Each structure stands twice: as structure tokens, then as C-alpha cells.
Amino acid sequence: MASSLQPLFLPSKKSAGVESEVKDVPCIFCDCKPFLIDKTGNYQNVLKHLLDGHKFVISNFAGVADPPKYFDYWKKRFQSSDLTDICAVIRTNTGENDVELSEHYYLLSDKLPEDIAIRRQVKKTKLDAVLAQQELERADALSKRMCLFCRKFCTENRATLLNHMAYDHNFSVGRPDNLVYIDELLDILEDKLKRLLCLYCEKTFKDWQTLKEHMRKKQHKHINPKNSAYDKYYVVNYADTEVNEAAGDEPFTDLRDSDAEEVEWTDWQEDEESNLICLICTEARTDLHSVIEHMKEAHRFDFSKVTKGLGFYQQIKVINFLRKQVYLNACFVCGSKFQSRAELLSHLSSEDHDNNSIEQSRWDQPQYYFPTYENDQLLCALEDENCAVSTMDDYVVPEDLEPPDRLVLEALRDPELGNEVVADRSLITSITQ
One Pfam family, short name please (predicted)? Predict the structure, then answer.
């Protein structure tokens, strides 16, 4: 059976992807074949290996600015230190009614002072490299390059070409001073247009004229800010977290005022809303109430009834439990397992089957604090609808952090361990230089 902590993702729009050079990333713990990572920076294969092969989880991996150097540091660190001295140990299937084998998982917390230190160091090193690259692009003349939308060639600099596309074709990827790796970005956009893909929604069209008309009418003459594949080309994404939060989540700014701005913003909002996916099937709705009504009508499952009287975190457990059972093609009421999703849905549609009779002992387990799907926006909608957290919920009040020279937060240490581990600051410096 798959682990309850296995990283999964709900269906979403495809990210930009082109063939590009790759780099090898070795495992932190073993000498298996290195993992190949391309320019899109997708490390899911590495994280899955760490989880399945070593029961190892990295908290907030998305916040790591330079994963290869981060992995390199912890590889050397774990060669000289015991895993339990640094990581929090999580045991699964510890309830009286659990029939599955109990397993230990190791969580490398991003609240650990040593982890905070190495993240900051690799982020600073990465930012310095990005700024150096940006300065080189500003000073370096652009090799002869044709505009993406007309036959004009530009040989002056990259800013001239970007401004030409913004002012003459109303296509902007942002201010040139805010961009980096511009040649690579232009290569990606040119490749998409050659394959007749819309640069915003990435739909494919039969010919160039149809594509141009679509982008004009739909106000799609810009790239999708929700597509994380473009994040590496915006300097703001390499800055400190505080700077990113102040700058906001939309680094794409048009270079001139446009009457279409309000229309474009409405288009983005509509696209963002349809992300709440049914707990049982793949139906997507725009709000929590609509999803609940759909589950009542289509699956005879009353989410409001099942969660009545439950606190916020208990409802979180219910959602994660249901997601996991459906993913495993297992009935969340009786536990029966099936070969396919279709067989499960047929089982749940039986008139004799009460889909609302779920035993609390099945979902009320610590492992279901973890989201089954990393991008499950139903959890966010639940938070919006239930802002006041019930006093019956069990929640943790964070304590003050220990000074930075301590490695393990007191709250994350195994009670049986009495030794403290001293951070190897020289190792951090040597890795990031």
C-alpha cells in the first residue's frame, strides 16, 4: 500500500516544458543512479525516492533556492551525524485499531536553526549568481534575433527587443530590469509559438492566424503568472521572503496603460476559481458550497453531515483521509478495495451502501494532518469558510526558538534523546562557496 505521506497532485493545467540541458542530482543517503533535473526544476522524482526509499521528508522544499547545493550539504551532514539527532521522527499507524504495519518517517523541518542557516546561505549565493548574470545580460549585446510577432530583427540589446514587443505588439513579459536568463525565456516562448501554442492558456491551434486571433480576442498576449515554470526568469523570486511578500505574486507588469487591463484581470480571476475538486470524482467547482452540493447529488455523500460538530483540524483529517482512500481505490466506509476507480464509484453508488457512515477511528489519526495532495485547494476553501477555529481542536502553540547556534528545536526532538547537536558552521561555508 502506498504511504500516507506520498506526495500527490490533483489534476491541473500543464506547466511549460521544453527539452533542455539536464543536471545530475545524487541521493542524500545512497549511491543509486543520480536523478536528472532539467531547467524546469522539477525535483519530484528525487523527493519521491527519498520518501519511498528512505522514509525521509523535507519540509517546505519549495522554499529551497538552490536544491543541488542544499542536497550536497545535507548529504555530507548525515554522513557524520545520526538521522534522529537532526530530524523529527513520525510514527504512522499507532492507533489501537490500525492493522497496517507501523513505520517511522523522518522530517527535516524548515524551522530547524541549521536548516534555516543553510537555506539562507544557498539563497544568498544563488541571488549573487543571478544578479551577476543579469548584469552580464545588460552589458552584453544581443545576437541577431527576430521579434516573436513580426520580421523585425534586433541586434542592440535585450531590453530593446522586449520593449518593441511590448509597445508594438502589446506583448509584455515584464520590465527588462526585472528579468534574468532572457535568452532562455525567449527560446521557450519562440518554441511554443512554433508549435502553435497560446502563450497564456497553452492550447494548440491549427494555424498561425487562428492562434493570433485567439490571443487577441481572449487577451492572452502575455504569459500565465500561475505557471511556476517561468519563476526562474524573474529576479524578485530570488530575493528574501520578506521582499517577495512585499512585491506580491504578480511580477508581470505591462509597460503601458491599456483598456484591456480590467478584462485581463477578470480572465485571471475566472481561471483561478475552478480549482475545488470533488472528494470522490474529478468534478471541479468554483466554491465549497457547490462542491458539497455536487457530492450530495452525485455520490450521496453529505460532507456537512459527516463533519457536523467537528473542529477545523478534525475536518482537515476527514478530507485527507477521504482523498487517500479514493486515491487507493478503497471504500472509505467499509474498507473494501477495488482494481479501478470505476469499480469504487459503482460500489459507492449502491442504494444499500450508506456513504455517510464513516467510523471516526478510521480518519482520526495523526497521519491525516498531512495533505494527501500537495495542491488540494479544498483545504484552503475550508479555512476560508471556517475562519474561527473551534476551541475543541487540538493545536500546537509554538514556543520561542532557541538561539541560532542550536541545531534542534526542543519541540522537534525525540524525548528519549538527551544530546544536543552543534551546528557545523564551517561545513555550511565550504558547501556554498
Answer: zf-C2H2_2
Q: Which three cell numbers stand for residue 3?
A: 504511504
| Cβ–Cβ < 8 Å for 197, 203 | yes
302 three-class SS:
coil
Q: What stretches of 71-224 adopt beta strand conformation (E)?
A: 88-91, 104-108, 145-146, 153-154
Residue with cell 495532495: 373
pLDDT at 5: 41
Identify each DSSP E strand in 6-115 by its residue range.
Answer: 23-25, 35-37, 56-58, 88-91, 104-108
User: Cα–chain-centroid distance for residue 248?
Assistant: 17
Farthest CA pair distance, the chain: 74
Q: Is the pLDDT at 255 greater than 80, yes or no?
A: no
SS3 47: helix
Q: What is the mean pLDDT of residues 391-403?
A: 44
Question: Left if phi > 0, otherwise alpha if psi is -120 to 50, otherwise beta: which for 176?
Answer: alpha
Please report the beta strands in 116-155, taking only residues with DSSP state E, as ranges in sequence order. 145-146, 153-154
Strand partners, 343: none
End-to-end alpha-carbon separation of the chain, Å?
A: 43
Euclidean distance between CA atoms 364 and 255, whole angstroms? 52
Q: Cβ(38)–Cβ(21) under 8 Å?
A: yes
Length of the chain, in residues? 433
CA 245-182-212 angle, to 5 degrees, is 95
- Cβ atoms within 10 Å, residue 271: 14
CB atoms within 10 A of CB 76: 15
Other CB atoms within 10 Å distance of the CB of residue 269? 9
Mean pLDDT of the chain: 77
Q: Over the stretch 197-212, which tens digit does the pLDDT of each residue have?
A: 999 999 999 888 888 8
Pick left, alpha or beta for residue 141 (phi over 0 → left; psi -120 to 50 → alpha; otherwise beta).
beta
What is d(CA 57, CA 80) in angstroms, rounded to the nearest whole number?
Answer: 19
pLDDT at 235 over 60: yes
The pLDDT of residue 312 is above 50: yes
- Alpha carbons 294 and 384: distance in angstroms, whole number: 19
Q: Does the pLDDT value for residue 107 go beyond 60?
A: yes
